[in-house]
């Protein structure tokens, strides 16, 4: 009997559906015990998000300062043959609850010496969030074997409208010719193929090897057009986070003016800097083709496209 731990937190419910669909072959197997750990922040995150609360989580999320979680259901000394971490990306960083799990003593003990698979659902930029998760898994003594990524069905510019609309109002339907927000339903439905591959790997004992179990399944596809943009945005978010933190912790009145300035910056960046950056990159891409190919290959590891 193999034991698999599935750890996840979903604000909208989409990631929960994805994680459960992906792990459904494991849940239905007679020779695998699937244990779910649903992360529960002590101060719940509302959905839809009030605009101000949405902005107020940015500094701590980017700086990897974890929120307080309710006690875990799973014990720190339980043994698992595989750990699956399913997380969202907030402000180009792992969501606060997943950061809290990875930094907790219980999380570190559960990951120590264990093979790990990460599962991401996000708008489209996930590279640097995954770099943070890689580092935290490594610091805990875990072995990252695979990464599976699901991104929103809309294009880069369209999702600048559809994703915030979904988060702030709860409406995700298509409108004005724009696609519906979130991961496409067919992508969610087909996620079980990864669970089938994991089941085969567990039965063959391949989780004990330092090699991906999901190679060749299109688990992680990097859009090279977004690499430089994501790096630039992450630097900006880090600078803003440190400035805002000077005004105190979440909910502090003293940080309100800087959060207001950040909101203006965010809108201005989306309307002006992002379209200009995409145009410049399109023109200059041939000059950086080799570098982009190298970065694309690196970020798609370990599972690859």
Structure description:
By secondary structure, the protein is of the alpha/beta class. The protein has helices spanning 14-27, 51-56, 58-62, 96-103, 105-111, 127-139, 156-169, 185-189, 192-204, 227-245, 256-284, 289-299, and strands at residues 2-8, 32-38, 82-90, 93-94, 115-122, 143-151. Strand 1, helix 1 and strand 2 form a beta-alpha-beta unit. The two termini are 31 Å apart.
What is the SS-derived class?
alpha/beta
Give the mean pLDDT. 95
The CATH top-level class label of the largest domain? Alpha Beta
The best one-word shape is globular
Low-pLDDT runs of 5+ residues are: none
Cα(first) to Cα(last) distance is: 31 Å
Largest pleated sheet = 6 strands, mixed
The total domain count is 2
Give the helices and strands, then pairings.
Layout: E1 2-8, H1 14-27, E2 32-38, H2 51-56, H3 58-62, E3 82-90, E4 93-94, H4 96-103, H5 105-111, E5 115-122, H6 127-139, E6 143-151, H7 156-169, H8 185-189, H9 192-204, H10 227-245, H11 256-284, H12 289-299
Parallel strand pairs: 1-2, 1-3, 3-5, 5-6
Antiparallel strand pairs: 3-4
Helix pairs in contact: 1-9, 10-11
């Amino acid at each position: 009997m193999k034991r698999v731990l599935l750890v996840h937190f979903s604000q909208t419910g989409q990631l929960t559906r994805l994680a459960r669909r992906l792990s459904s072959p494991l849940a239905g197997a007679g020779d695998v015990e699937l244990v779910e750990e649903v992360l529960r922040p002590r101060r719940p995150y509302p959905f839809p998000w009030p605009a101000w609360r949405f902005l107020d989580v940015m500094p701590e999320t980017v700086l990897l300062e974890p929120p307080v979680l309710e006690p875990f259901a799973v014990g720190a000394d339980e043994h698992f043959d595989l750990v699956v971490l399913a997380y969202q990306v907030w402000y180009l960083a792992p969501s606060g609850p997943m950061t809290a799990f990875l930094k907790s003593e219980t999380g570190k003990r559960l990951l120590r010496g264990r093979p790990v698979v990460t599962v991401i659902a996000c708008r489209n930029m996930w590279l640097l969030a995954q770099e943070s998760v890689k580092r935290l898994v490594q610091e805990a003594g875990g072995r990252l074997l695979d990464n599976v990524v699901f991104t929103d069905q809309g294009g880069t510019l369209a999702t600048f409208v559809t994703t915030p609309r979904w988060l702030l109002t709860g409406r995700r339907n298509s409108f004005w010719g724009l696609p519906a927000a979130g991961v496409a339903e067919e992508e969610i439905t087909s996620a079980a193929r990864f669970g089938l591959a994991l089941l085969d790997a567990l039965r063959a004992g391949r989780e004990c090897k330092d090699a991906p179990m999901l190679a060749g399944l299109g688990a992680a596809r990097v859009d090279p057009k977004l690499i430089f943009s994501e790096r630039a945005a992450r630097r900006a978010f880090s600078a803003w986070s440190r400035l805002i933190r000077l005004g105190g912790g979440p909910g502090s009145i003293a940080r309100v003016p800087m959060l207001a300035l950040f909101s203006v910056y965010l809108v201005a960046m989306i309307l002006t800097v992002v379209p200009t950056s995409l145009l410049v990159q399109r023109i200059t891409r041939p000059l950086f083709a080799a570098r982009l190919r190298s970065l694309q290959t690196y970020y798609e590891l370990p599972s690859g496209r």
